[in-house]
């Protein structure tokens, strides 16, 4: 079977986990005019990629995928608890929990899931997104690096979808923005891969503030 199909499946917006229901603070950044055009959008997304995802979210997800691929259930459980504790806001916590739950429901019905993974998922009880993503990659025999690439691409695609719904930004402009941001996506993956596990961490204050304010935003397109 073509290995690319599994990768496309994991990164697809058709994956029924609700990822496109959330903006991760971007809707509030648009509301506050921090993001108001293509250039400011590129700055916001670029900062998130290099200052947050590359330093924390991406290496943490990569560690999840590596532990799952190696059947290291003790390490995977520890990483899962660290990920859950690292959500800065109620909104980000609920987002990760809801998407993790949706992945759990999906995985439980998949024939590709082997018994050790099923047993682990049952013990965890309340998985989050990174854990579910790692187990999905394991079930579909996607390597950790490819699973990370799929997650980064899915994140970027979601951010661009938010922009097209909240700004006067058309599809062609979004494609030009994609071309501008793809090198940063590559840099984020490379940095996450090379990062010493002892140095994983970030302090995305702007994202946390945008997320907290979004919980009280009067009119919203995206979930809180």
Automatic annotation (TrEMBL):
It is found in: Cytoplasm. The keyword Chaperone applies. Keywords: Chaperone, Cytoplasm, Nickel insertion. InterPro entries: UreF (IPR002639), UreF_sf (IPR038277). The keyword Transferase does not apply. It comes from the Bacteria. Pfam families: UreF. GO terms for molecular function: nickel cation binding. Its main location: cytoplasm. Coiled coil: none annotated. GO terms for cellular component: cytoplasm. Required for maturation of urease via the functional incorporation of the urease nickel metallocenter. Belongs to the UreF family. UreD, UreF and UreG form a complex that acts as a GTP-hydrolysis-dependent molecular chaperone, activating the urease apoprotein by helping to assemble the nickel containing metallocenter of UreC. The UreE protein probably delivers the nickel. HAMAP family: UreF (MF_01385). This is Urease accessory protein UreF. The gene is ureF.
């Amino acid at each position: 079977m073509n290995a690319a199909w599994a990768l496309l499946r994991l990164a697809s917006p058709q994956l029924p986990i609700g990822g496109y229901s959330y903006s991760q603070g971007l809707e509030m950044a648009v509301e506050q005019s921090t993001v108001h055009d293509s250039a400011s959008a590129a700055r916001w997304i670029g900062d998130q990629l290099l200052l947050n995802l590359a330093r924390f979210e991406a290496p943490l997800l990569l560690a999840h995928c590596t532990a799952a691929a190696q059947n290291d259930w003790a390490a995977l459980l520890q990483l899962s608890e660290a990920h859950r504790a690292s959500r800065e806001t109620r909104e980000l916590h609920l987002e990760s929990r809801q998407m993790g739950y949706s992945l759990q429901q999906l995985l439980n019905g998949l024939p590709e899931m082997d018994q050790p993974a099923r047993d682990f998922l049952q013990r965890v009880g309340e998985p989050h997104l990174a854990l579910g993503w790692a187990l999905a990659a394991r079930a579909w025999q996607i390597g950790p690096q490819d699973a990370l690439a799929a997650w980064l691409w899915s994140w970027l695609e979601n951010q661009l979808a938010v922009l097209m719904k909240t700004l006067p930004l058309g599809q062609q402009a979004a494609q030009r923005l994609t071309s501008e941001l793809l090198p940063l996506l590559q840099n984020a993956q490379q940095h996450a891969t090379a990062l010493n596990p002892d140095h994983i961490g970030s302090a995305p204050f702007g994202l946390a503030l945008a997320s907290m304010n979004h919980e009280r935003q009067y009119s919203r397109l995206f979930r809180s």
